[in-house]
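Narrative of accomplishments. A recurring question from our advisory board has been how the design workflow behaves on a single, concrete structure rather than in aggregate. To address it, we present the structure tokens for one chain from the evaluation set, followed by the sequence designed for it. No filtering or post-editing was applied between the two.
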């Protein structure tokens, strides 16, 4: 059996939840002796760059390229078709919803990570009938959803036969790879809460800011570290200033780097995840696996990930979030309990299981 992951995901993300998912799937299928290939003619993805299965990767790494334009799109299309024909796969597992030649490819598997564009269409400047995945879902022989909540949203926004949908959770191996990660000397001599990911739209980041100063002891003793999502924008600095937040209290590490993130999880008082909507919620799983307590919104898919192992709150309730912050900051026994529960919960998710369940989908199709 030959599987091709046909994608520009690997071009457009240096790191990221989607690219990690496809790469880990690719890697674990090969560990199961299933010939899996990544076809990404031009990429700057670090997972590809450091892969131990480079012989099964068709593409060139351009570490400084961080955008797509019509020229690269054309190159990508030409060489993707060429390499795919050369490999002659039994299955195409595409990660690109907009490939123009997919009607010629069968069997076709698609993974749907979330429906945020459909749910928050206004924030993307679209109308309520915006359905960007419609064509690829019509063409797909099978659809994988990364959570039950994503499946529910998918069935709400698209007319799809439920029989061709399967929920397969992401895996986790952050704790298992700690021996191979080089320790980052970040010299943080202060207590902090960690926030991971983008800060726009449904991510609800500024709900943290709204409650941060309501407890003077927390505000005086703690900082907030933001990992990923870029440096603070001038518009964000303006909001912080208007809320009388000292800008030195918010520290950004904009570059996505697994080694740095590993240390940030290990030393954080807690991860705060206030999102209004997520397809899965990978940072929660990563944090739990590394002994970092979690404070999480109870929205969308997130309870599927943390189970009983987090302090949860309604993402629209500042009082609930503040209560969680105060508990995690000042109750050491509660922190220890959450760490224990989180480590146990994280063991329920593995990339090996994800690969085996996905392989069962492939076998069913061929």
């Amino acid at each position: 059996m030959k599987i091709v992951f046909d994608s520009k995901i690997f071009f457009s993300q240096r790191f990221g939840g989607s690219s990690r998912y496809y790469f880990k799937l690719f890697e674990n299928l090969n560990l199961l002796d299933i010939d899996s290939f990544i076809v990404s003619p031009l990429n700057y993805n670090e997972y590809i760059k450091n892969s131990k299965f480079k012989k099964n990767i068709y593409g060139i790494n351009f570490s400084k390229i961080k955008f797509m334009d019509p020229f690269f799109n054309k190159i990508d299309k030409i060489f993707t078709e060429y390499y795919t024909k050369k490999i002659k796969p039994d299955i195409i597992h595409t990660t690109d919803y907009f490939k123009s030649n997919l009607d010629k490819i069968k069997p076709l598997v698609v993974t749907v990570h979330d429906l945020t564009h459909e749910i928050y269409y206004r924030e993307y400047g679209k109308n309520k009938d915006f359905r960007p995945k419609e064509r690829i879902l019509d063409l797909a022989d099978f659809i994988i959803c990364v959570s039950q909540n994503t499946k529910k949203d998918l069935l709400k926004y698209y007319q799809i036969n439920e029989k061709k949908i399967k929920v397969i959770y992401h895996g986790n191996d952050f704790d298992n790879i700690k021996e191979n990660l080089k320790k980052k000397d970040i010299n943080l001599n202060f207590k902090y809460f960690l926030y991971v990911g983008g800060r726009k739209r449904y991510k609800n980041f500024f709900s943290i800011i709204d409650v941060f100063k309501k407890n003077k002891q927390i505000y005086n003793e703690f900082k907030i570290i933001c990992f990923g999502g870029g440096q603070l924008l001038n518009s964000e600095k303006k909001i912080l200033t208007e809320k009388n937040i000292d800008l030195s209290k918010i520290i950004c590490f904009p570059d996505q780097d697994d080694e740095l993130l590993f240390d940030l999880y290990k030393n954080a008082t807690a991860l705060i995840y206030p999102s209004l909507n997520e397809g899965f919620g990978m940072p929660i799983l990563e944090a739990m696996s590394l002994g970092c307590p979690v404070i999480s919104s109870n929205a969308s898919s997130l309870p599927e990930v943390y189970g009983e192992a987090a302090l949860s709150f309604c993402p629209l309730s500042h009082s609930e979030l503040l209560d969680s912050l105060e508990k995690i900051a000042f109750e050491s026994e509660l922190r220890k309990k959450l760490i224990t529960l989180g480590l146990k919960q994280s063991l329920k998710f593995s990339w090996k299981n994800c690969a085996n369940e996905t392989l069962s989908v492939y076998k069913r199709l061929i």
